[in-house]
Amino acid sequence: MSEGCIAGGMKILLLEDDVETANFVQRGLLEIGYDVTAVHDGHDGLNRACVEAWDLFIVDRMLPGIDGFQIVTKLRARQITGAILFLTTLGGIDDRVLGLNAGADDYLTKPFAFAELAARVAALGRRSRKVSPELQLRIADLELDLLTHTVRRGTDLIDLQPREYRLLEYLMRHVGQVVTRTMLLEKVWDLYFDPHTNVVETHISRLRAKIDRGRGVPLISTVRGSGYSISAAP
Amino acid sequence: MRLPRTLGTSSFRLTVVYAVQTGVSFLLLFGVIFWSTARFMRHQIDDSISNEISEIVSSPIASTAQGVTSLVGDMSRHASGFYYIWQDSDGKLLAGNLPAVQPQVGVREWSEKHHLANEMSAIRGRGVALYGRYLFVGWSTHQLLEMSRFVTAAFGWGLAASLLLALSGGAVMSTRLMRKIEDISETSRIIVNGDLRQRVSVQHNGDEFDHLALSINAMLDRIESLMNDLREMTTDIAHDLRTPLTRLRNRLEVRDSVTEPQLHQVLADARRDIDLILEIFSALVRIAQIESGGRKSRFTAVVFDELLDTIVEIYRPSAEERHQSLIASIEPQLKVTGDKELLMQMFANLIENALRHTPDGASIHLTARREGTQVAVAIADDGPGIPEDMRGKVLQRFFRLERSRTTPGSGLGLSLATAIATLHDATLRLRDNSPGLRVELRFALPPILPPQPL
């Protein structure tokens, strides 16, 4: 799998009280190549988080001992900068906002598909390594200018609708990673529920028509059962 | 020994405090009146004595000591009410109606115990030196004593009566208050034991207990309706989850002869069933969270036209798939105060409903415009509509028209929309679009703040 090389050595601390879920997540992430440690209790988790260096914390909302919010708040108060992925409970509309306000970088609602979690973990790994803001995004001969909002493929100027532009920008910022339909709905449409429509598919196919059709190597690819990906060599 | 309950009540304790206060102020008043009256009477006595003395001294007869002796002797016999002593330097009484005393110039007073005149008289008077002898003129202070005795007795009785009144009044009032409180506690005991229909009795006399009773009853009404909602919801959940769960169970009962592709199909179907069940759950939790009202604190100004444009953009592809037309006419510059995420969800649900329950080729109109101080939004379709007698019911949880049982969905879309509308103080009405259904929503425009003076 293409994630194999991205995953290399990323250290993840998983705080999840349900042993079965924790095992499922840990096994899945280990297979991709992450270094995952699972802790089932809030206090233990906080201790481990403070004494060792981690790249990412996956924190469950409900934990025995200390709950997820407090852990996120405490980690940020102690200047621990690792990325935090917050797992919220079913239907917790307020949990997400509270979690993000407390300092989490992303959230995922339970129950979740493993592909969704893997995609978000990969996105967070990339994010934490990024340093300076770019003015241009470039993949092969596709070029997106963040200042003028113009897109070129080779020498051709490509005319995109605002939403298509946001979609392309998000894909290009996560080059080589799988972005899921849910991630796109959240980040491109600000939609935090499933509208049961093929709006994402429609926009992706329009984007493909404008960027890839009749232009040699296609850049946007569909990852079956997971989502979409943009890369120079699919 | 235990006090009777009345004496232990806070109102009775309050009465006792008031009674003590009344008593103390009574005593204070008594003291002031007594003291000033006595002072006034003494002044009067002193004044008339001074007059009498100066009359004696200035009388022509009193130009010699013998003259004074005869004058005082005369006056003593006339029983004018004054007492006189006229004695020489040896202490021998020359004239007067009192025995000789130790000569002492100035105001002096004898109490009753001295028995100067008779057993009943206390005397107050003034002594002066005259011709080397001593003259004393006095007046009985009997009146003063009588007055003080009378006033003291009157105050004593008054105090006793008022304390008795205050305490008995307090006891009566405490008993009545206690009865009213007892009524409320009795009602709450019955409610605690499980009968939520009990109410506190209201006298309709407009006193504070009525207000309390009305508030408590309003609270109980609310609790009862919430409890009923909860009971209804539990029943609904049990009923509506049983269907997909049964379907799921049947699906998973596969024969031994099942082939691998068939098994994959079963798993895919099962996953879809589970997703529906999870969706029902999360919709229920959302409704509960929205109805609890906590999100109101996060309301911001929402650009309405932008939000609706996004909704149209999201649903247009699936409408086109079924040759349905989604026609939007949205006035620009519409703003309301609210929770963007929830509003988005509400309109998504309403549009999704319209798309789902209308046949291929139907058209759905979304209009939004300003009407006076309101923003009016309507989602109108030309589908089969909802019969008038069913329109109230479809807003309830899990209610689905018989013909919709086969279409996918949680049956919670409209109740979620209603909950969100209620949170935003918006009205949601279902109207006949003849043919079709017209969902009307009215939001209040955010108040236009007057420009701040610089």
Describe the protein's topology.
The complex is a heterodimer of chains A (234) and B (454).
Chain A: H1 3-7, E1 11-15, H2 19-32, E2 35-39, H3 42-51, E3 56-60, H4 68-77, E4 83-88, H5 93-102, E5 106-109, H6 114-129, E6 136-139, E7 142-145, E8 150-153, E9 156-158, H7 162-173, E10 179-180, H8 181-189, H9 199-211, E11 220-223, E12 227-230
Parallel strand pairs in A: 1-2, 1-3, 3-4, 4-5
Antiparallel strand pairs in A: 6-7, 7-8, 8-9, 10-12, 11-12
Chain B: H1 5-8, H2 10-58, H3 65-77, E1 82-87, E2 93-96, E3 106-110, E4 123-130, E5 133-140, H4 142-192, H5 208-252, H6 260-291, E6 300-303, H7 304-321, E7 325-330, E8 335-338, H8 340-356, E9 363-371, E10 374-381, H9 391-394, H10 413-423, E11 427-432, E12 437-444
Parallel strand pairs in B: 7-9
Antiparallel strand pairs in B: 1-2, 1-5, 3-4, 4-5, 6-8, 9-10, 10-12, 11-12
Describe the structure.
The complex is a heterodimer of chains A (234) and B (454). Chain A is an alpha/beta fold. Chain A has nine helices and twelve strands. Chain A has helices at residues 3-7, 19-32, 42-51, 68-77, 93-102, 114-129, 162-173, 181-189, 199-211; strands at residues 11-15, 35-39, 56-60, 83-88, 106-109, 136-139, 142-145, 150-153, 156-158, 179-180, 220-223, 227-230. In chain A, a hairpin with a 2-residue loop joins strand 8 and strand 9 (156-158). Chain B is an alpha+beta fold. Chain B contains ten helices and twelve strands. Chain B has helices at residues 5-8, 10-58, 65-77, 142-192, 208-252, 260-291, 304-321, 340-356, 391-394, 413-423, and strands at 82-87, 93-96, 106-110, 123-130, 133-140, 300-303, 325-330, 335-338, 363-371, 374-381, 427-432, 437-444. In chain B, the strands form three sheets. In chain B, strands 2-1-5-4-3 form a five-stranded antiparallel β-sheet. Chain B is rod-shaped, with a radius of gyration of 50 Å. In chain B, 24% of the residues are buried. The model of chain B has no long low-confidence stretch (mean pLDDT 83). At the A-B interface, helix 5 and helix 9 of A face helix 6, helix 7 and helix 8 of B.
